[in-house]
Amino acid sequence: MTHNYWPWWLGGGFLALTAILYPLLTGDPLGVSGALGRVLRRYRHRTDDSARAESGCGEAQQAGEQQSTPDLGTGASCCGPASTGCGPGDSTVGASDQQRSERRSSAVFLLSMAVGGGLAEWAGGQTWGRGQLASEFYRLYGHGAGGWVALFVGGILVGVGTRLSGGCTSGHGLSGCGRLQPASLVATAVFFGFAIAVSFLIEGLLS
Amino acid sequence: MRGSLLRVVIPGLLLGFTVGRLGFADYNELHRMLLFRDLRLVLAFGTAVTLCVVLFALLRRKIRLEPVRFHSGTIPGALIFGIGWAISGVCPGVALVQIGQGIWPAFVTLAGIVVGVRIHGRFLSR
User: Fold this and answer.
1) What is the per-residue burial (b if ≥16 Cβ within 10 Å, else e) of A63-76?
2) What is the largest CA-CA distance in chain B?
3) I need a labelling partner for A24 at 20 to 30 A (CA). Which of A2, A135, A183, A197 fits?
4) Model ipTM?
C-alpha cells in the first residue's frame, strides 16, 4: 500500500492556516480535545481550554455535573470575569442557549474533521474503507485482542491526558505554541518526549 | 461561538483533510516519526508552529485569545497523553480522521477517548 502524502512544507502550511483560521472565524482558539470536552461534558461555561475552564469554573462545573438540572446562575457568574465569552450576554437563559449552540458547533466541527479525513482519502486516491490500521500497528500488536486493548487503553489515556493537560496536539501544539504560551510549550515538549520514549519502549519490547 | 456553523465546518474540513493528506493519521507514519526514522512529520509540525508564531504575531490585533493557564494538571496530563498517543497512534483529532477514512478500529480508540474524557470530567476536574 503506497501513499502519496503531502510534503512537509505543504502539510505544515495548511496546519498553520487552520490554527489561524479557526480563531479568526470563531473567536476561540483551535482545540480538538477542547471541542470533545464541550460535546461530552455537561458544562456550565464556554471556555475552550479545560485549563482555563477549570481555573475559574471548577466548583460550578462539579456542582453542575452532579445535578442534572443546569446551574446556570452559578456558571455564568463564576465564568463571567474569567473568560471573554461568558460576558454580559449569558446571564440566565441566554447561557443555556449559548452552551447548547457551543455543543452543537463543537460537534459539527468534529464531524467536519472526520469528513475532511474521508475527502483526503479520496483525494489521495486511496480505496476508501479499507477498514484496517496501518501495517506497523499489526506488526507490533498482532491481529488479536492485544491490538484492541492497545487502542482502547491508549484512547483512555489520550482522553484523560488531553483534558487534564488542557489541550492536545492542536490546542497546545499548534495554537498554544504558536502564541508562545509557556504552559503549551512545556506540555508539548512533555507529550512529544513521552510519546518518543514510549515508542522506543514499544519497539524494543514488542517487535 | 457566534455565527453560522460554516465557521466551524470550514476549519474542521481543512484540518481533517490536512491531517489525512499529511499522513498524520497513519500509524506507520506516526510511529516512524516518533522513532526518528522519518522526519517528514516532525518538519511539518515544526513548520506549522513556526508559521503560527509569525502569523499570530502579525495578527495580534485581530486575534485576541486568552493566555493558556499553567496549572497542576498541565504536565501530568501531557505525560499521560504522550503515553496514550504512542500506544494508540492517535491524538483526539486523528481518531476522527481515521473514522472518516473508513478505518473502523478507530471506533474502539474513540470509545476509549470518550471514556477517558468522562473519567476526567467525573474524577479529575476540580
Assistant:
1) ebbeeeebbbebbb
2) 44
3) A183
4) 0.95
CB B74 within 8 A of CB B88: no
A161 to B43: CB separation less than 8 angstroms, yes or no: no
The alpha-carbon gap from B24 to the nearest alpha carbon of chain A, in Å, equals: 9
Cα–Cα distance for residue pair B1/B4, rounded to 1 Å: 9
What one-character-per-residue DSSP string does A68-112 give? SS--HHHHHHHHTTT-STTSGGGSSHHHHHHHHHHHHHHHHHHHH
Q: Which of A21, A149, A92, A156 is nearest to B52 (CA)?
A: A21
Residues within 8 A of A (CB atoms), B 36-65 only: 36, 40-41, 43-53, 55-56, 59, 62-65
What pLDDT, on the 0 to 100 scale, is given for residue A34? 93
Mean pLDDT taken over chain A:
80
Give the model confidence (pLDDT) of B104-113 as tens digits. Answer: 999 999 999 9
Can you tell me the distance from the alpha carbon of A117 to that of B46, in angstroms, rounded to the nearest whole number?
A: 22
Instruction: Retrieve residue A120's grid coordinates.
Output: 483526503
